[in-house]
Specification:
The chain is α+β, with helices and mostly antiparallel strands and 93 residues long. The chain has one domain. A hairpin with a 2-residue loop joins strand 3 and strand 4.
Length: 93
């Protein structure tokens, strides 16, 4: 018997080269049972920064999936822009 599971939207992954380093930006959906958009910025496998934003405010809407996708895109782009602006510091020389 198949269980009903919350469908999770696929996220986004980008590698951003900045000042000779490659940063990886990853955004993911926590699913209806954990309605949070999470974005991590990695450098060499180490998380430099994380942001998360809840989206339980949209779950009652019929178009919640499309709204969620737009919020995920916006959060992902904001974090990419932070990398490009030099707002994310690495402890490497």
């Amino acid at each position: 018997m198949a269980s009903k599971r919350s469908k999770i939207l696929l996220g986004f992954n980008h590698n951003i080269k900045f000042r000779g380093k490659t940063y990886h930006v990853q955004t993911e959906d926590g699913g209806r049972s954990n309605p949070v958009i999470k974005t991590h910025i990695f450098l060499g496998g180490v998380i430099l920064d994380s942001v998360q934003w809840p989206y339980d405010d949209i779950l009652a809407r019929s178009s919640w999936r499309s709204i969620l996708k737009e919020r995920m895109k916006a959060q992902h782009l904001d974090e990419i822009n932070r990398v490009i602006a030099g707002d994310v510091a690495s402890n490497e020389g």
